[in-house]
Sequence to fold (928 residues):
Amino acid sequence: MRQRKKLALIISLLAGLHAVVLGAGFFAPYDAAAQNRELPFTPPMRLHFLDERGNFHLRPFVYPGVPRTGSYTGYQEDRSRAFPVRFFVSGAPYSVAGLFRARLHLFGADPPAEVFLFGTDGFGRDLFSRMLYGGQISLLAGLLAAGLSLALGLVLGAVAGFYGGWADETLMRGAELFLVLPWLYLLFAIRAFLPLQIGPEQAFLLLIVVIGLIGWARPARLVRGVVLSARERDYVRAAKGFGATDTYLLRRHVLPQTFGVLLTQGAILVPQYILAEVTLSFLGLGVGEPVPSWGNMLASLQQYYVLASYWWMFLPGFALVPFFLGYSALANALHERVKAVLI
Amino acid sequence: MTNCLLRDLAALLAAAALWASPESLQKPVEKPREELLLNNAEIGRYGGQLVVSLRSEPKTLNPVTMTDNPSKEVIWRMMADLVHINRFTQQTEPALAKSWKVSPDGLRYTLKLRRGLRFSDGHPLDADDVLFSFQLYLDEKVHAPQRDLLIVGGKPIVVGKLDSETLVFELAQPYGVGDRLFDGFAILPRHLLQKAYSEGTLAQAWSLTTPPEQIAGLGPFRLKQYVPGQRLVLERNPYYWKVDRKGNRLPYLDELVFLIVPSEDAQVIRFQAGDTDVISRLNAENYAVLERQQQARGYTMSDIGPGLEYNFLFFNLNDLTARSLPQIARKQAWFRQLNFRQAVSAAIDREGIVRLVYQGRAEALWGQVSPGNKLWANQALPRPPRSLDRARELLRAAGFSWKADGTLVDAGGDVVEFSIASSASNAERTKMAAIIQDDLKQLGMSVHVVPLEFRALLARILDSRDYEACVLGLASGDGDPNGDMNVWLSSGPQHLWNPGQAQPATPWEAEIDRLMQAQLTARKYSERKRLYDRVQQIVAENQPMIFLVSPHLLVGAKNGLGNFRPAVLDHYTLWNVEELFWRGK
Fold:
């Protein structure tokens, strides 16, 4: 019972996190690509509750940042003007999952002030907004690639395990081949041959599909193992003796046994593929400007000056932590459940 | 083999120690026969070593085959030319040749060699070495990259000697660059290279693994040691031909060490940690990082103003009829319209690029010559400020219109959408492309930025011609327009928007061809300047390249390095390495 509760808690937490990313348009105060050329590399803004005279305000407010004279990226707060943070404001238009358009944002400030909770990047773009929007690409990449790997792995693994013989031999040797495939070079080659007219999102999704498709080997081997043992169970043999067809056996008796393994694999693969997206961006194969993704935001950190001068550029990296913890906890909980069911 | 090498090294070290002993060096040079060059820089002190970083290992130590930057950086510290362009004043000055005369028709140069000079291995220099060197550069089979510069009016320069110290260079027609011609041709030792040349193995001679005693030059330093993947050590050339006002023979430094440090970030960290003494060609962000700590860490950073690099956006204007690239050919209908290119130029926020990409350490650019190149920049070029209104006007006049949602469409109703390629390894240019993308979005154009691996990018531009637009940069070698001949001639291999044309594709390209050829043979600077000003004007009017910015050269050096005078010409910090010295404590 406790396990059930724990699982439910983890799932609702993850669902909540995904909802925030899906609703990035609402939670983010600004458009991810909007540049503020006067304000590159502004540090995170402080939310103030106490004003100059020491009076407390329940509604937080911000002081706009103004560049220090003679500096391009040094800022100080302009204390002469305070701008209260407003909630449920109308701002830049966005679309929710491509379904409907809206302008309502969770928070913002009256123009000309801006609220940069996490500061801005080198183009003066709001990092907080970019982090939320970036999650859409990264999570899509993770879920899509994991889904593809699992689907392909399930089909090929089941065939190999259930039929055995030459089908098993061929598929499993093929799987080994795919395990040793240097997929990075494959992706480089694919990117070099893609026509330039393809938009950055499409090009990127294509690469993700390729990664997902070539990642089938590991889940396929696991599924094969489960199918192999399920096939020999007495009730399966009995059903076979009564004349059940292969399709019936697979659907009714064998494949349900693999779902636990598949779910656990899924919970492991999703963060793995999110990280793959980070790797791609580090190599310049990720999604292009101005579309944000966690990968390309982290990729900008490889430059020394970012480390030395702009610590807040690391903040989007922390977005990965709750997701990875969530998925890891989910994988553990699922694993335990699968064990309990099997025993 | 190793033993043998070690023994050689030991012998060499002993020899070096002998030469470097302070008494022998402090003594004024008295040999009357040696015609040394008096150097007017501040008088320094002997001793110490200078450590600098190289971005990659040099590919060769052979001046006849060098093409990569690290090789040039090392080789030119060991070599010398007949007449040298002073990197600081940008004027020519005597080097191995003590004097020269030009015939009135400009077709014949007579050079007098300095008497009594020796290569760094002690072997004397004479006119035959010069003849031999130019024979190598001119030999088609050798494929020296400098060869093109010795072909004037379609004919190779003829080199002859009058006596053991007088040389004659005969040209087929007058050559605008004049005595600058001789800069960049290292004089090589015949006694060391003759064998390789006659055996046809010159291209393989003087590799990194060649024993140091088999390499000799006339530059301030000579090779001492090479540790693969780590460092190259050069030591003082005891026979160098410059002396200071006190008669001390240059160079002052005992050793020049090149550390191989593969990335700019790593170079910055090594410099910050004090592992290297000089750093050059920094990006503005790293410069800012280093600048903040210069007090505490004991070095000084300097911004020496705009260099000779110019960055630009250009569209694919190739004739694609013979190639199957229908998508791009369709978009060329826009690219070929002058109004379209002018509108793009008007919409670009050059000041924004200066601020966001270079933190103000760059100059906005409207022509191909950087303001850092004071001799050649056309000051009269118009510098229109950014104007989206003007851009829209130009587009409207060319038949473009806007849909209700602000998307730009051409006269046929097609949405204006194209990609800008950039080099993935060049963060600055990719950033410029992203700014241009946002600028053009305000005109309703949909632009994709595609960072590509640099070689793949060049292959697309020069070979397959499979691209739409590109952000790239070039640096004019020594600032003279001749260095950029292959960019501006319509037949040139680096005529980027449409390279290697058989016939000029447009009347204005034909006019540029004529002007560039004319400046090649005009003998007066004022005449050449007038011709090149006109080239700049034509380019600015027709916008085959939309010029963006010219970054400043940013350098730094440890405090106490005397005579450190960074220049905008290559090599920015080590061009006067023979004069550099460490001030006493």
Observations:
- The interface with chain B takes residues 33, 35, 37, 40, 72-73, 122-124, 188, 192, 195-197, 199-200, 284, 288-290, 302-305, 308-309 of chain A (CB under 8 Å).
- The beta strands of chain A are 48-50, 56-62, 65-67, 75-77, 83-96, 100-109.
- Residues 297 and 316 of chain A are 7 Å apart (CA to CA).
- The longest helix of chain A spans residues 127-163.
